[in-house]
Amino acid sequence: MGVTGVAELVDGLEAGTGSSPIYSSPIYLSDDDLIASVDAVMVAVSRLAAVQAGLVREIHGRGLAKKLGASSTLAWLEDRFLLAGSSAARLLKVAVEADRDAPAASAALATGAVNADQVLAIAAAMRELDDVDAATRVKAEEQLVEFAAVHDPQRLAVLGRRILDTVDPAASEAREAELLRKQEERAYRARAFNLSPDHLTGRVKVSGWLDSESAAIVRAAIDPLCAPGRARLRPHTSDDQTADQAALPDAVDDRLPTQRRADALVDICRLAMATGDLPDNGGERPQLAVMAEFDVLTGELKTGTLDTGEQLSPEAVRRIACDCGLLPGVMDGTGQVLDLGRERRLWTGAARKAILLRDRGCAFPGCDRPPRWTDIHHVTQWQHGGGTDQRNGAAVCGHHHRVVHQGHWQVRIADDGLPEFIPPAYIDRQRRPQRNRYHRRP
């Protein structure tokens, strides 16, 4: 079809319609005429898509794009027709890949029986049958073209994966197993995990892919930690009850499911680091390194910096410093290290074990996290003279450690040696101390 032929096709589509309401004001069409007109246009679009694909295929086959100075046919399409990269790639797939992998579907496109998206779905299904004999491939493609009369591209893709059930049932089961094996191999090879910091917002984007088996392992580890926190009883109204028998009205875990999953992932990593079973990194145990300036006049930690370059607020530094090793250092005015002291653990093994045995898990009221998921929080911060004995420590999970360091809750050790949490006034106007009763239930 030459230029004249293309012009004739376009003219044919417009024949008798130059003054038609289709072009001027479809508002004047009846319902039936409006639907019929849309049907006709959709068929015409498919037919024109076939013509377009044929022309692009010929341009690609002749290598015209490179002769014209473009790096590829794709780049030429983007530049000449100002197409988005995805649109140009789709056009090239219809022109080249679909014609090669699904010739019957491409022929059906020329008649308007299928649309371009359906052709791409059929072509993708046919590529998965590359080791099937030619006769079976022909039958499979013909069947998918028939299915296209009543199924959209997404459904065609599903049917395409099981097309052998229809055209060759005897080979279908073995074929399905082989397809799954290949799919698993591709998924495993494509596995990826990325942490992309956004320094403007203080967030880090987590992205990547896992194969189904690996994802199941991650899901099995995370799911138990994603359940909402246990609800507690409403506060008492009788003045003759002791305050530590009360429960708070805001006990319901208000974190979003996505937030609970994020917290669970961090908890799992924290547990893995605490076990000591991870391989060494550069001769040292895996550790979180934060550099923070200590103001000797105020006795406060200032803004900290992770070894990856991200900055942390003083609150975050204090939270991390609750349960860590300290490595004191002296620096000059330019930040160069002049002298390093010895690392000193704030909570030694014996003190830590004693607190975990006492608290039996996260001590925050209503929390059910077990001991292995907890940090040791300083009731009085170490930089304010707080010691590392049982009277100055309380076990808290990562989530409630953050809650405590936000400053609204206060922690103290009662006369009987157990930790109590004093809520802010907006939760309990009387600010009655609360305890975790979950770990001490009968």
TrEMBL record:
Pfam families: DUF222
UniProt xrefs under InterPro entries: DUF222, HNH_nuc
UniProt domain HNH nuclease: residue ranges: 350-402
Protein known as: HNH nuclease domain-containing protein
Lineage: Bacteria, Bacillati, Actinomycetota, Actinomycetes, Micromonosporales
